Hints:
The chain is of the alpha/beta class. The protein has 15 helices and 15 strands. The longest helix has 18 residues.
Amino acid sequence: MMKLLLRMRLRHRRLSSPPLTRLLACLLLLLLPLSRAATVVTRLPGFHGPLPFYLETGYVDVEEETGAELFYYFVESERSPGTDPVLLWLTGGPRCSAFSGLAYEIGPVKFVLEPYDGTLPRLVYSPDSWTRVASIIFLDSPVGSGFSYARDPRGYDVGDVSSSRQVVTFLRKWFDAHPWLLSNPFYVAGDSYGGKMAPVVAQYISEGNEAMRHPLINLKGYLVGNPVTGDDIDRNSQIPYAHSHGIISDQQYEAAMANCKGDYVSPANKLCADVLQTIKNLMSEVDTKDILQPTCPLDSPNPGRDASARRYLAEEHYYRISDPPVEPSSRCFEYRYYLSYFWANDNATRAALGVKEGTVTEWVRCKRSGFPYTYDVPSSIRYHFNLTTRGYRALVYSGDHDLGIPFSGTHAWIRSFNFSIVDDWRAWHLDGQAAGFTIKYGNNLTFATVKGGRHAAPGNRPKECFAMAERWLDNKPL
């Protein structure tokens, strides 16, 4: 019966009437274990009309002892879901919600950027969604991110290694419940700190496959954007990047090189420490995630809300708002983050997404404190090396206006592998213009920059990043 319903669900999703589709989905969900119960979402609060794509949300238990469950958003490919790749998307932080990927970067919805007036923020379809060519699982990981939770407080005490293994547990259980996708090519993807965890998760999947742990996941590779490594190379590359972009002077750069001897992380003498403090002050004058954009401190003055907004807030439309975030300027990229706080904490939103009552009292995009976290993968570089030398495909891309994780530092650790060059440094194009630059190395490793891209490049260069992802996933040259 289970297999029959799965086949019917796949065959009829595009062909049957909406009521029949919903009925088949509901019958399937009733057969799934309770801890993995899913919700088929056909409408989202703030989005006009039915969703033009298939969205499923749900939980998967990843630790029985503490009752830890990871929440996910699954969006099916709009092109050919039976054969298109399946991506797992991990967001940075750690403990930033995967909703960031869904609504700000590569997903099929985005916020209408209009001044918040107390009513529910509006969503519209994003034409540059990667779900046009791939099915994507947006995962709230580690526990404590987004709507993921644990019944026992001990379940929130995780780190790089334990959370990565929980992701693998999630995937094996998720594919158990979605076996029709097991034969599709699978990639682990993520940006920022998620870019650090992606190769770790991919290596654990690979090791599990080699040990014949079922279900066998059809891992083909991974892709990461402006990835943190945890290695000193990330921060050491900031100084030469800042110099090359006119943020620090020749004299300051020369003083740093002379007194710090290439180590800008742990100053060994006072002269080094002094020049690094000067440089730090200068770097604070720009947005490190996008050096061309205005700086938008989170503690900027709140312009306040009008009377209608205050009335709306008082009508208990929201789940449990204790202290709303400070409202940034609408010209800031972060304004969309501000809107998401009110959208995700709305009662109607939580009901539509199938969020379990009493599990997460207040949704925030990134939980910066409150839960322990162990950084026990000091550097992810060896995981990149291990995977690529074992034949897995890799795309590493960088928005070239990111000062936090500069493209030059990322390219430096890639070059340290000493792989042969298959296709030398060149421009890649979109609409007849250079969209960035790329180089392809042996072992199927591609590095690309996104011209004008910020720390999460799809956020401000969506068309370029979609073109890049589509070509790479389709095994075509950038």
